[in-house]
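Sanity check. The docking grid for FE(4)-NI(1)-S(5) cluster depends on where the pocket ends up, so I'm generating a full predicted complex first rather than guessing from homology. Inputs follow.
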Amino acid sequence: MKENMRSVDPAAQVLLKVAGEKNIKTSFDRADKLKPCPIGHQGACCKMCHMGPCRLVGKEEEAEGVCGATLPVVTARNFARMVAAGTAAHSDHARDLANTLLAVGRGEAKDFQVKDVRKLNRVAGYLGINVEGKSVNKVAEEVALKFLEQFGQQRGELAYLGRAPKKRQEIWKKLGIAPRAIDRECVEMLHRTTMGVDQEMNNIMLGAMRASLADGWGGSMMGTDISDILFGTPKPVRSNASLDVFMQDHVNLVVHGHEPSFAEMLVIASEDPEIVAYAKSKGAKGVKLVGMCCTANEILIRHGIATAGGFLQQELGILTGMVEAMVVDVQCIMPAIGELSKQYHTKVITTTPKGKMKDAIHIEYDEHHALDLAKKVVRLAIDNFPNRNKEKVTPANVRPADMIAGFSHEYIEYMQGGQFRGSFRPLNDAIIAGRIRGVVGIAGCNNPRITQDSLHNFLSRELIKNDVLVVQTGCSAMASAKAGYMTPENALENAGQGLREVCEAIGIPPILHMGSCVDNSRILTVATAIAEEGGLGDDIGGLPAVGIAPEWMSEKAIAIGTYLVASGVPTIFGAGSPVSASKSLKDLMENKWWEMVNAGFYFEEDPGKILELTLKLIDAAREKLKIRKYEPGRFGTERVLMDMAARRASSFATPHGERA
Ligand code: NFS
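Predicted complex below; grid placement will be based on this.
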């Protein structure tokens, strides 16, 4: 397949061409060679026991497995297991962070400290912890213990559910889907979907929603909050994004995966004067730390560290011949990079006992000696610099796009009125007046079965043209970053008039980078704040807001989509449907869920139809809210609290990425 059919990213196209010339196989080639199993692809393969696997083909009314399991049951069980796995992934990430916070609180992890005390106290408040008269570390310890309890508590419900609008909490109670404990919901979902337990599609899917809420309002939200407490709550930073962020005269160290703790230490280690001197002693000018996948997003939004891209860029990064080491932890790490690294000088370093890889060096991360370990890893990369083979160096030579990232909930609130009168009023007013038609969160992965970034970019472009404010996370955010969409100038050039005026008034891009995939929890809290601000109903359900994951591939994306819907945000996934085998399940998710949670879950492959459906859902919500009908260029009145000059004066900080 031609490179431009594989990716719209010009730098990726260059490296894909290099791969082709050298006959090096990438995920794109493997995807061409390996056709998805048509039965498994649509959710109709049951392998819960050893009487099968049973491939349920034929009419929905007739198809059944050896045990008599029907298509709706099999498809729902498969879907629910994906939700449980995605929830487990995000939440296990949060568990590690909670343990780090505990170690910090107890003074056992000397390289870390609480960076955002204000956020720590805010979080303590959500958890019902009194902070009066307690030291920062004491509060951190209590918060960490309370968080750890959330995984295995035997009674009650997750504490963070209380952060949702009251009306939403009532819906969850009424349906019996308020999650009790994170581990419990994952375990119960596995139990219920094992052979011979839950035999009723609707009930299985209620369980799936419950497990997903343990992700969105549990693991993911905790992951976001602990990262903010320990590493700082993001505010806008300048940086850049491309496969061409690697530097020929530097040691290039890629940090790839999802957990931010070790990456934070690598940021410090790579800038340490002793380390820089060591790099110079080996003939390099310094160490260029570069992020990949969601770890990239974590250190991008806090330090402006440049990103080489998302999931589909990991092999291509190695193909530049300039990566001395790639440090990986958990999730979205292709097993293929181990074998590929052998054809280059790149060392792949695994860092967690949960994720080892053939052909990799294992250096186990331990928060008690974090910085020493980080220095060890950076030195290993430096030692590998002289091994770089000049003949294999193939830079993409595509200028990295500039970007601004780091729009946390707290910053979005702040930019609408400053430290003391921050609110969501201006945003709500702009929506009510019709300047902003609605808000869409585009999230999720890349998938080699879809031209890389094509749908992310198409949708973000078209949505801002239609006055829709776009917020992005994960690999989706990287697609926009690489395309140069994440700058305020983009608002001037490409956004509709209403959105453009709002962006100019506040001084923001029309597409906001909100962080990694666990940071989709920020979308939940922002949606809650909008609902509670007034004028747009009193629940997340019913807001003119939609979630989209157009190029998804991961179980984590399915968990995210499900918790968005269970929280009241209608959600559309591209890239094929894992539930298309069952008409009844499709009907449940697209239609009946509206009656239950005031949102539906859609799978739609056609990009034009995704756009059409998104705008239709937004306009329908506007109509129901009885707010001004959206008409391009015609608005009601609203007030704007901060003008452009004031916003510019506050400027964007920490230009790490500009070192490139
Ligand atoms: Ni999200 Fe981040 Fe990317 Fe998909 Fe993987 S990196 S956690 S799962 S592929 S968006």
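Relevant for the grid: Residues 71-105 form the longest helix (35 residues).
Also worth noting: Residues 649-660 have pLDDT under 50 and may be disordered.
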